[in-house]
Amino acid sequence: MAHDEDERYWGRPAVLERGGSQIHYWVVGPEDGPLVVCTHGATMDHRLFDPQLEALVDAGYRVLAWDIRGHGISKPLGTDFTVPLVVDDLMAIIDRLGDEEFVLVGQSFGGYVSQELLFRYPERVTALGIIGSTDLLTVPPRLEYLALRLTPFLFRLWPADHLRKVIAENTAETPAAKRYAYNATCQLSKREFLTVWKAVAVCHHAEPGYRIRRPFLLTHGEHDGTGTIARDAPAWAEREPDCRYEVIPDAGHNANQDNPDAFNEILLEFLEDVVETG
């Protein structure tokens, strides 16, 4: 989507200058609607949630989507890129809006950001929705964790444009979603990509006995082959006290883009059950 077309769809972005980055965000929907905060995955941007915007707004929700620092038009990245820093960025935006409570929806890395925010500020979060992510607060088995820690070094050796094409091909199922993923990934330099991926590789932290004490929607695409997401999701759902687990048919890692009709129906049903729209 071209910049002017995106602006017609989401409106003009607001900008928060924080920690050396110009962080861009968009708020769409009724002013008195419950706030749904959408956070994209690594190398994507706010447009990941294009297929959800109209459905959420029509249902009475106010939508906050943003470009994480270094992604989309939120530049520069900075050097100290971590999940806690991104959480602080997001909380600064939400506090500027003045909302005391909100729903979190996060895809992939955005799922990690959403989980970390809930862990740190549980009193602020009404409900959590996850698309294609793993449990941030459980450290993977030793060999898998070691492999994850090594991925930034492997990516360093990979030619940048070929890496972008591979990411796009393996992130989505539909041609349109693949084109978007490639376009979004091209907005990051190779250096920015490596900095982001280092944060992904080290963000897990073990919190024994921790449970998500909020209504929790856990989803992933039927064909999501990223990491151990599909393998680990059933066990994660089983140990959480208030989890609805759904597999999005005919969808890959960016499941909300690959099959928005199925995902939107599930998300709106979940929100209707757990959020008061007035």
Give an overview in words.
- The chain has one domain (3-274): Alpha/Beta hydrolase fold, catalytic domain (Rossmann fold, 3-Layer(aba) Sandwich), CATH 3.40.50.1820.
- Helix content is 45%, strand content 17%.
- The chain has helices at 3-10, 50-58, 83-97, 109-120, 142-156, 160-171, 175-185, 190-202, 229-239, 255-258, 260-274; strands spanning 14-18, 21-28, 35-39, 62-66, 102-107, 125-131, 216-221, 243-248.
- The chain has an 8-stranded mixed sheet with strand order 1-2-4-3-5-6-7-8, with helices on both faces.
- Strand 1 (14-18) and strand 2 (21-28) form a beta hairpin.
- It is globular and about 55 Å long.
- 43% of the residues are buried.
- The mean pLDDT is 93.
- What radius of gyration results from the CA coordinates? 17 Å
Number of helices: 11
Kindly state the percentage of residues in helix: 40-55%
Give average pLDDT, whole number: 93
What is the annotated CATH architecture?
3-Layer(aba) Sandwich
Order of helices and strands: HEEEHEHEHEHHHHEHEHH
| Main sheet record | 8 strands, mixed
CATH superfamily (homologous) name: Alpha/Beta hydrolase fold, catalytic domain
Give the CATH class: Alpha Beta
User: What is the strand content?
Assistant: 15-25%
Number of domains: 1
Give the number of DSSP strands: 8
The low-confidence parts are: none
Structural class: alpha/beta
Question: In one word, what is the shape?
Answer: globular
Amino-to-carboxy terminus distance: 34 Å
